[in-house]
Structure formats: structure tokens, C-alpha cells
């Protein structure tokens, strides 16, 4: 787990560096808006700007003077500043200024480039994450599970069985004594993978067993789950020759 924690921390640092490379020194860059008095007749300009969160108060600019403020647009792209303007012998007029329109329209192409770079960096981080997890969990992060069924019936009887999961149907199979059938699959990430099988042999009723259940078998047999089928029930076998035997499912 310590190795996993180190890899997660490394990914977090890489993500911060990557996002910083996209957005510059500020992780969430500020937008700057300027208003310059360009009235004919060199008149004074009075204005009052607000947003849902900020009130910039009443400002007065002499001819050619500039007022600047800065803010961080919200992630939903709904930031709105609206202003009232007035000068000598004029009626008050209102203007709505979106954070990324009008004067700030120059940001539109930059915004597209930024989003493109951000997408590339996210993809790069995803690849790094998979590589890191591969280092943690082994060369094959999404390893396949192998299940084997061996006919170990006394009396050397033939074994007929049929295994299914929610996604796969392996069809009816017949094994002679000591023959083995094998299949492989990738358990789902939700750990709900289930293969269930029916078994029958000469003069026997049909019996059932859940031959693979992720929550039961993943930690026990890992990538190889090997079963020997006997009349009394299936037995999972291990390399050290010990085995765990189960009873048939109750109907």
C-alpha cells in the first residue's frame, strides 16, 4: 500500500504541474476588464458596475483615463458584470458585459487553445495513471482470471456441465474422467462478476454451483481458480495440494 500511496502522490504532483503548464503560474487565471473614457468633447464619464457577487461602486473617469478590475470567471461560464454609464446632459444607459465577450473577446481563441491543451494534459495524465497502476499491481493491471474444471468423479463417469455469467454462455460441455476445461475472463471493476454452472452425471440429478464469485474467489485464487468436481461437491485446489471443498447450491 505504501508503494500505491507514493504513486498516487506522484500523480497528484504531476497533475498540478501539468495544469500549471496549461494555465500559467495561476492555476485559475484572472480576467482583466478595462473601461476607458473616450467621450467626444472630453466629458467626464460616471459609471457603476456590478456582478452577482461584486459591487465596484460609482467611478468617475476624466477623458482618456482608464479603470481596471480583475476577477476569476466561474467554472459554469455564467459570470456577468453589468454597468450603468452617465455623462453631462445624457440619460443613464446600461450595458451588460460578459466575462468573455466584447473587449475580452480576444480570450476566445486563447480559451480554445487552453481547453485543447488541458484535454491533452488530462489524456497524458490518464496514461501516466495507468502506467503507475501497472507498476503497483504488476505487469498486467487488468489481469485475466482463469477458471478450470476437472472431472474427478468416482467411478470414472463422464461429467456434463453448463456454465454461464450475465454476459457469457459457455455452452454445454462433456468431460471424461480427469479431463479439464478452462476459460478466462476479466472480472468487472464493481466486483460483481459471477459464473454459475449446472452439473450432472449418470444416474444423478442436476446440481448447481457458483463456480466463480469475485467477492469469494478474487483474494483466494487470484488469477487461477482450479476446481475438481466430485459427487459430493466441487473442490478448489491449490499448488500446495491442499483443497477447499464446497457443497452444491441449495435450490
From TrEMBL:
GO biological process: rejection of self pollen
Keywords for this protein: Membrane, Secreted, Self-incompatibility, Signal, Transmembrane, Transmembrane helix
Residues annotated as transmembrane: 113-131
The organism's place on the tree of life at top rank: Eukaryota
Signal peptide bounds: 1-24
Secreted among keywords: yes
Pfam families named in the record: Self-incomp_S1 (PF05938)
GO CC field: extracellular region
Family statement drawn from the similarity comment of this UniProt entry: Belongs to the plant self-incompatibility (S1) protein family.
Protein name as catalogued: S-protein homolog
